[in-house]
Amino acid sequence: xxxxxxxxxxxxxxxxxxxxxxxxxxxxxxxxxxxxxxxxxxxxxxxxxxxxxxxxxxxxxxxxxxxxxxxxxxxxxxxxxxxxxxxxxxxxxxxxxxxxxxxxxxxxxxxxxxxxxxxxxxxxxxxxxxxxxxxxxxxxxxxxxxxxxxxxxxxxxxxxxxxxxxxxxxxxxxxxxxxxxxxxxxxxxxxxxxxxxxxxxxxxxxxxxxxxxxxxxxxxxxxxxxxxxxxxxxxxxxxxxxxxxxxxxxxxxxxxxxxxxxxxxxxxxxxxxxxxxxxxxxxxxxxxxxxxxxxxxxxxxxxxxxxxxxxxxxxxxxxxxxxxxxxxxxxxxxxxxxxxxxxxxxxxxxxxxxxxxxxxx
Length: 361
Known about the structure:
The chain has 361 residues and is an alpha+beta fold. Helix content is 36%, strand content 18%.
C-alpha cells in the first residue's frame, strides 16, 4: 500500500483546500474547489462564508461578490446550510435522502396540504421570506430543540432539500424562497442516486486531498467513502484515501507555503480528529462554554503556517469602535520569530480587510 510521509500528507490537505500560496482566481473558483462553504451567522470576526472566502482570496474578496454570485450571476446557490456551486445542485438533490431523516419524510407526508399550500403560494407570489408564508400545517413539527413547532421554517427547509422550493437570495439577513424554476437552470438534470453520490464523493475527496473513508461526523461531508487511492501516513494508525490528482501535484515537490487565519468551521479543521491526526492540532469551539472554562477564546481562529497548524488567535471585532480586539495569540509550541512575524502580518491584513484598527489587549 502507498505510504506518505506526514509532511507530504499535510501539504496535500493544505493545497487541496486552497491554502497554499497559489490563491484562486475568483469566488466561484474557490467554492467550486471546496464544493461547499458552510453558512453560520456567528460574526465575532466575520460570518463564516466571508472568513473562509477571505482566507483564500485575500483583500480582493468583498461580501458583495457573494450576493452577486448567488442572486445575479447564479453561479453559486444557497442550499440548506451551505453555499454550493450551482453546477452541483442536481447532484445534491439526487442525494437528498442522505441529508433527510425518515421522520422528516413522514412529516412531509402528514402535511401534504401544507406542502401544496407553500409551493402554490411561492409559485404565485414568490420570492417570499418565511414570515410571509402562512402556517397551514395539519401536524406541527415537534422536536426537543430550537426547531420545535417552527412549522413554516421546517417545511421550507425540507422542501428545499427535496427540490420543491429553492432559496433565491437574501432580504437583509432573511432568506427568500421561490419555486426552483425561477432559481435553478432550466436544463437542470438530476441523475440517479448512485451516479450523483459517486461524483459528490469524488469531488469531496478532491476538496480535502486526503481523508478517512468514514468519520464520526455523519452528514457533514468530510469523508472519502471509497474514492481515491488507499494509503497510510507515517506515524498515524489506520488507512486513508488520497485524491490521485492531489497526489500527483504533491509529487512535483513545489509546495508554496503561506500563513492563514482560519474559521473554526473551515474544512481544513472541521473534522477535529483528522486535524489532530494530520496536524497534531487540538481544537474545540468554545463559544458555548462559560468564559472561565475557555482555553483559547470565544471564537478562536486556527492559525496555519505553511503545512502546520501552529496556534489559535483569540480576537473579536468591535464594529461600533471599528477595532479588532486581539486578546491573545496562543502558540501550540514555541514559535520561531518568522512565524510570529507572519502571524502578525496576517492579523494586520485581516484588520485591513475588515476596515478596522488592531488593538492588542
